[in-house]
Design brief:
This protein has 153 residues and is of the alpha+beta class. Helices cover 31% and strands 41% of the residues. It contains 5 helices and 8 strands; from the N terminus they run αββββαβαβααββ. Strands 1, 2, 3, 4, 5, 6, 7 and 8 form an 8-stranded antiparallel beta sheet that branches. A hairpin with a 2-residue loop joins β1 and β2. The longest helix has 17 residues. The protein is globular and about 45 Å long.
Length: 153
Amino acid sequence: MNEEERREVEAEVRWLMNGRPEAVLSTVNGDQPYANLIVYMPEEDLTKLYFVTPRKTKKYRYLKQNPKAALLMDNRANEKSDIHHAIVATALGTCREAGADEKSGIESRFLHRFPYLDKFVKSEDSVMMVFEVDLYYLVRKFQQVTELNMRMI
């Protein structure tokens, strides 16, 4: 992929992320996958995604046991035409808790994007998670797949 193609794919992933804040987070429990709907915020350079979860969830427990995860983002409209027109991006990487030194900056940006989640984010039980992206798979027109490696920046 040349630099111009990379910029185009990054722009499409960014557009997709800005269009819908919800995504499906997949974690692993032993050999069993587990999926949850979350809201997230991307870093401008797409290398990190942020979300908040309570510590008492399966999602949190599974990520502590195995930090590998996948995040599926899409622009489906629940129409029959989605199979040919929807755009889907899957991020693969690892998750960790935000460190104390980075948490306040992330949290303020997160709350700017999601002010209605103020109590949830600031709850004693909630933790800010950092999803460090290794790569994205962008799927267009049902079978047109492009891989965007974030470790080659």
